[in-house]
Amino acid sequence: MTEWKIVRTAAVIACTLLSACSTIHFTHDLSSNRQPAEPLRIKWHDTTIDGMIEISPPVNLYRECHGKPWSKVTVEYTFANGLTTALISGTLVSVAPVFNLVSVYSPWSVQTYCSVSVSDLQAAAVSNSD
Predict the structure, then answer these.
(1) Residue-by-residue pLDDT tens, the chain, 130 positions
(2) pLDDT at 60
(3) What's the number of domains the chain is made of?
(4) Where are the extended beta strands (E) located within 34-103?
(5) pLDDT of 6
(6) Is residue 12 part of a domain?
(7) Reduced to 3 states, what is the DSSP secondary structure of residue 107?
(8) How many DSSP H helices and E strands does the chain contain?
(9) What element of type H or E holds 117?
């Protein structure tokens, strides 16, 4: 029984070390009169068949930033995304082993940073100091 625990622990450690998270940053050069704003809430972007087919529509930066320029978009494959993928894949593989060949569902976290006008920031600072 002790050997089984060692093998299981080694397998968990190997899976943890071999699984990888990924981060991609897209930046948009802003004019000198604009600055990055606080980040918006994180949304998940859903894909299937090992990420080759998108389930959810792309993030509409114009709509997210209410018509203002965006400054940065961060796309990440986080631990939570990997855990979700593993749970769904594990469930499907237990039902039909053919699902072991491909990841049926794989979410990515997307965080958008819009921009704000420097004059708006200065006006807000003046009104807060009153």
Answers:
(1) 588 888 888 877 776 666 667 888 998 887 778 888 888 889 999 998 888 899 999 999 999 999 888 999 999 998 889 889 889 888 888 888 877 788 889 899 999 999 888 776 665 655 666 5
(2) 92
(3) 1
(4) 34-39, 43-48, 53-54, 70-77
(5) 85
(6) no
(7) strand
(8) 4, 6
(9) strand 106-117
Name the residue type at position 121: L
123 located within any domain:
yes
Structural domain boundaries, residue 70: 21-129
Strand partners, 109: 44, 76
CB-based contact 89:6 (threshold 8 Å): no
pTM, full prediction: 0.72
Residues contacting residue 7 through CB under 8 Å, at least 6 positions apart: none
Contacts (Cβ under 8 Å, ≥6 apart) of 3:
none
- Between vectors from CA 13 to CA 12 and to CA 15, what angle results, nearest 5°? 65
DSSP calls for 18-50: H---EEEEEE-PPPTTEEEEEEPPPEEEEEETT
Using an 8 Å Cβ cutoff, are 107 and 46 in contact? Answer: yes
Residue 7 in domain? no
Q: Is residue 15 part of a domain?
A: no
